[in-house]
Design a protein that fits this description.
By secondary structure, the chain is of the alpha/beta class. The protein has a single domain, classed as Alpha-Beta Barrel (TIM Barrel). It is built from 11 helices and 11 strands. A 7-stranded parallel sheet has the order 3-4-5-8-9-10-11, with helices on one face. α1 packs across α2 and α1 runs parallel beside α10. The two termini are 28 Å apart.
C-alpha cells in the first residue's frame, strides 16, 4: 500500500471511514469487524471515526468503540495504525445532529474518546464542525490545550473554510496536520481548502468521496466521464474517483466509508490506477 503523511506519521494513502458501520442502516457487528479486518489485511493504517457516529443518545461513541475493538482483535502488528476521531458534533438521539464547540465540552469529549479508544493518547483529534454560538478561536484553543497537555498526538479541523484553516494553524502554532472536508465529484466547493492544504503541506481528508451513503451507488450514472474512464481502465467508478483524488495532490488521503469487506477491498485498488494529464483534465471538468 502506498503511504502519505499526516503530521510526521506515514499512513496508507487510502483510509477507512467508519461512519456507515454505526449510523442508520448499519450492518451487524460481525460484518463491521470483518470490514475493519479486511482493511487491515489490505494494508490500511488510517481509520476515521467520531464520537457522534452512532444512533445517538446513550449510544454516543459507538463507532469509536467498534473501531478500537476491531483493530485490537485483528491479531497482527498495529503499531503503525493511526485512528482519528472528532468532537463537537452531537447526536441527541432523535435523528438530528447538533453542535457544541465550547472549550470545556471539547475537553470532556476528548477525555471520553480516550477511554472508548482504550489509549493514553489520541492519534489525531479534530474539531468536528464550527459552532456558530462559540468563537472559532476558542474552540480551536481547546484543541491546542489538548495537544499541549499530551492528550492528543496530532490536531486537525473538519468542515473548515480557508480562513478558519489559517486561523486554526496560527492558534495551534503551526501544528495543524489535517483538514477533513466534504469533497466528491458532486461536491467540489472544497477545492479552495484542498489547494490551501497543498500549499501548507497539511493533509486533506475528503469525507463522503462518493457523494454520501444515499448517492454513492449513483456516482457512475451522474458523472459519465468517471464511468467512461473507469471502464477504459477496468475498474469501478468508485475506484476511479479515489484515484482522481489521489492524483490531485500528495496531501490528499481519501476516507471512503465502508460497511462490508468487499467495498474496502475494491477501494484500495485505487492506489494502482494511473491517470494521464488529459484524463485528469476531463475528470476535473466534469
Amino acid at each position: 500500500m502506498q503511504t502519505r503523511r499526516i503530521g510526521d506519521a506515514q499512513v496508507s494513502a487510502i483510509g477507512l471511514g467508519g461512519m456507515p458501520m454505526s449510523i442508520e442502516g448499519r450492518p451487524d457487528e460481525a460484518r463491521s469487524i470483518a470490514t475493519v479486518h479486511a482493511a487491515l489485511d489490505a494494508g490500511i493504517t488510517f481509520f476515521d471515526t467520531a464520537d457522534a457516529y452512532s444512533l445517538g443518545g446513550p449510544e454516543v461513541g459507538h463507532n469509536e468503540t467498534l473501531i478500537a475493538e476491531a483493530v485490537a482483535s485483528w491479531g497482527g502488528d498495529t503499531s503503525d495504525v493511526l485512528i482519528a476521531t472528532k468532537g463537537g458534533h452531537l447526536r441527541p438521539g432523535d435523528g438530528s445532529w447538533t453542535l457544541d464547540g465550547r472549550p470545556e465540552y471539547l475537553k470532556q469529549a476528548a477525555e471520553a474518546s480516550l477511554k472508548r479508544l482504550g489509549v493514553e493518547v489520541i492519534g489525531l483529534y479534530q474539531f468536528h464542525r464550527p459552532d456558530p454560538q462559540v468563537d472559532y478561536a476558542d474552540s480551536v484553543g481547546a484543541i491546542r490545550d489538548l495537544l499541549d497537555a499530551g492528550k492528543i498526538r496530532y490536531a486537525g479541523v473538519s468542515n473548515a473554510n480557508p480562513a478558519q484553516i489559517k486561523l486554526a494553524d496560527e492558534i495551534l502554532g503551526g501544528r495543524l496536520v489535517s483538514v477533513q472536508n466534504q469533497f466528491s465529484p458532486a461536491f467540489r466547493s472544497s477545492e479552495p481548502e484542498l489547494e490551501l492544504c497543498d500549499e501548507l503541506g497539511i493533509a486533506f481528508l475528503p469525507w463522503s468521496p462518493f457523494g454520501g451513503i444515499r448517492r454513492a451507488a449513483e456516482l457512475g450514472d451522474r458523472f459519465a466521464v468517471f464511468s467512461e474512464i473507469a471502464a477504459e481502465k477496468g475498474v469501478s467508478a468508485h475506484v476511479l474517483t479515489l484515484a482522481w483524488m489521489l492524483a490531485k495532490s500528495p496531501v490528499v488521503v481519501p476516507i471512503p466509508g465502508a460497511s462490508r469487506p468487499s467495498s474496502i477491498q475494491d477501494s484500495v485498488t485505487a492506489v494502482d490506477v494511473q491517470l494521464t494529464p488529459e484524463e485528469m483534465g476531463r475528470l476535473d471538468a466534469a
